[in-house]
Write a structure and sequence with these properties.
Blueprint: E1 2-10, E2 20-25, E3 29-36, H1 41-56, H2 58-62, H3 68-89, E4 97-98, E5 100-104, E6 110-116, E7 120-125, E8 128-131, H4 138-144, H5 150-154, E9 175-180, E10 186-190, H6 192-195, H7 200-209, H8 212-225, E11 232-240
Antiparallel strand pairs: 1-11, 2-3, 3-4, 3-5, 5-6, 6-9, 7-8, 7-10, 10-11
Helix pairs in contact: 1-3, 7-8
The structure holds calcium ion.
Length: about 250
């Protein structure tokens, strides 16, 4: 399948710095990291995490029959260890951390996702937007237990309280997911600056009515129009069938 990638990152309307980082290695590896910490520590955490993660995934491209799920999990562990040690060694970095949601596309119609935190991977297919990853947050757990509705969760005062993040504790439990892709799918990796400002139905509506570039600009514009209270970042990957070459003559 052919892929088309569009990404955006915006500081938003309230914050002075952008703590989100994106990793784009077309056509196979993509990730979003949303950092947290005082001063510049959030930015450093998200950037350093993506760097460590990418180094950890080296085998994905260079080893035949690589075990993608194991390599992704190991790369997450390595990134966690790296940030945890950085935070422990330097007082300015104490308590820093980041979300990390990654997508690996080996090119055979399979997608692998690895995830810690509350950035998200969505799949848009046949007009329906589905959240692939599960937020590691206090509020998402309450929703899963039936104690909160999605609507209540959207405006909950503790919605940004994470249950785990990269670099905060010595060990993480990375969610690893794989699923089959179809032509026409759009994959959306994003930070919570998008999903705190736009409901899933609004994102789906924008994807349905626009081409990828216009959709990307519209998502940013709408997130800002709704307050832009956080950094907004996303990567969209659109999959289409490879067209037969009709020019044989
Ligand atoms: Ca954020």
């Amino acid at each position: 399948m052919k892929i088309t990638v569009t990404s955006r990152t915006h500081v938003g309307k309230v914050r002075s710095n952008n703590e989100d980082s994106l990793l784009i290695r077309e056509p196979y590896l993509f990730a979003v990291a949303d950092g947290m910490g005082g001063y510049a520590a959030g930015e450093i955490a998200s950037r350093a995490t993506l760097k460590a993660f990418e180094i950890g995934t080296y085998k994905l491209r260079h080893e035949q029959d690589a075990d993608a799920e194991q390599i992704l999990a190991d790369a997450f562990d390595k990134a966690n260890e790296h940030i945890y040690l950085m935070a422990g060694r330097n007082q300015a970095y104490a308590g820093m951390g980041t979300t990390l949601t990654a997508l690996y596309l080996p090119g055979d119609s399979t997608a692998y996702a690895a995830h810690v935190g509350d950035s998200r991977l969505y799949l848009y297919r046949n007009g329906t937007l589905s959240q692939v990853t599960h937020d590691h947050s206090y509020v998402a757990d309450l929703v899963a237990k039936g104690k909160l509705t999605d609507k209540e969760a959207f405006s909950h005062p503790q919605k940004n309280m994470l249950l785990q993040a990269i670099g905060v504790e010595e060990h993480i439990r990375t969610d690893i997911i794989h699923f089959a892709l179809e032509a026409g799918d759009i994959l959306l990796l994003c930070s919570d600056g998008l999903t705190d400002m736009l409901h899933d139905c609004e994102i789906a509506d924008i994807l349905q009515h626009n081409d990828l570039v216009v959709a990307a600009d519209t998502l940013i514009a709408e997130a800002l129009a709704n307050g832009g209270r956080d950094n907004v970042s996303f990567i969209m990957i659109s999959l289409s069938a490879v067209e037969e070459d009709g020019c044989n003559e």
